[in-house]
Structure formats: C-alpha cells, structure tokens
Amino acid sequence: MSSFVEIPATRNSMMRRKIHYGIGINDAPYMTSVEVSGKMTQCPVYRMWVNMLKRCYDNEFHKKNPTYIGCSVSIDWWMFSKFREWVKNKDWIGKQLDKDLLIQGNKVYSSGTCVFVSREVNNITGGGNSATGEYPQGVTMDNGRGKLFAQIKIMGKVKFLGYFKTATEAHDAYKIAKYARISEVANEQTDERLKLALLNYKINGDK
C-alpha cells in the first residue's frame, strides 16, 4: 500500500471517531492519524477518502469549486474500508483519483467509474487551457499586436501554436494539438480502460 505504518486502533480511539459529512464512516482497524517524530502523519488512503467526500459534500469547498456541485459518492464507499479495499490493488501511489474520464460528465465516485491517473493525464483532460472571458479554450488575445493566438500546455510548458484571424481557427488549432497530445499519452498507458477512455475523449463541444 504505502510506507504508512498501521498501528492497531484502540477501542476508545474508534469510539471518538466522527462521521464525515453525515455519511462517511471511518471503520479502519488501525489509527488513520499517528504522531511520528513529533509530527502528525495521516494514512494517505484515508486522506484521499476524506478529500473525496469533501469535494462532494462540503458547501464551503463548493463556493470556490462550483464544478463539484451535484457530485456524490456511491453508498458502498461511505465506508472507508470499502474504499480502501478497492484502492489497495490499484497502481495509485503518486497518482490522482479521477471520476469522469472513463465516463465523461460523470458525477459519481464509485468503483465502476473511478480510475487513478497520472498528473499529466489529469492536466491534459482537465481544466488546463480552459476558456476564459470571451475566447474559447486555448485561445488568447495578444493585446500588443491585436491578434488572436493559440497555445497549449504540455508537461507544464506552454507551447505557442501560432496567430490566427479568427477565434474559431485558433481554437481548431488548439484542439488538433490537444488531441495529438492525448493520443500520445493514451499510448503510454498500461490500463486498457484508461487507454480507451483517452482515445475516445472529447473536448467540450465536440461530438
């Protein structure tokens, strides 16, 4: 699983546990938070589980991240042990939990809809290069030249794609570059479900 040391939980410590967001039950037989060398260390799978619940049920979180409004967690994952059982046989260390790549637009975290993805997969299919203001995704106005240009971020670096006469032309150039990058990333995957999902991925507005 990870380098986190699982120390058996005492009866008293288990009785003091609180329900998360009215539904989440921490039924781990071990201490999910322990003190190591004077610092509190938390089980990474437990932290992932709590963060998942937060994204779905924390109203304050929704104020800053409205795209998560309406998201939910499947009933079986309300129990931490069920979520942990699913995670432990996956290649998850250093990766991120994704709910809407296998099924675009999905809002339910469950064993059938979630997959662990690398940061690059998350970035290329996530909100990077999102539309801002009056221009579509990947398109920006060069105010100094009065021209529209397209760009895409790959592996943390911005790649300039050229100047264009219209926002549509610039956006089309961005989409061509993005689909090409997604195809490259897809062919690097060993998980066939993830590879297929990437190859079938559609940028917002495409069919």
Tell me about this structure.
The protein has 207 residues and is α+β, with helices and mostly antiparallel strands. The mean pLDDT is 93. The protein has 7 helices and 9 strands.
Write a brief structural summary.
The protein is 33% helix and 18% strand.
- What's the total helix number? 7
The number of distinct structural domains comes to 2
Instruction: Give unreliable regions as ranges.
Output: none
Helical percent range? 25-40%
Measured between the Cα atoms of the first and last residue, the distance is: 39 Å
Reported for the largest beta sheet, the result is: 3 strands, antiparallel
What percent strand? 15-25%
Radius of gyration: 21 Å
What is the molecular shape? elongated
Question: Which sequence of SSEs, written as H and E, runs from N to C?
Answer: HEEHHEHEEEHEEEHH
User: Average pLDDT across residues?
Assistant: 93
Topology:
Layout: H1 11-15, E1 33-36, E2 39-42, H2 44-57, H3 59-64, E3 72-73, H4 80-88, E4 96-98, E5 108-109, E6 115-117, H5 119-125, E7 139-142, E8 147-154, E9 157-164, H6 167-186, H7 192-199
Parallel strand pairs: 3-5
Antiparallel strand pairs: 1-2, 4-6, 7-8, 8-9
Q: Can you give keywords for this protein?
A:
two-stranded antiparallel sheet; 7 helices; elongated; 33% helix; alpha+beta
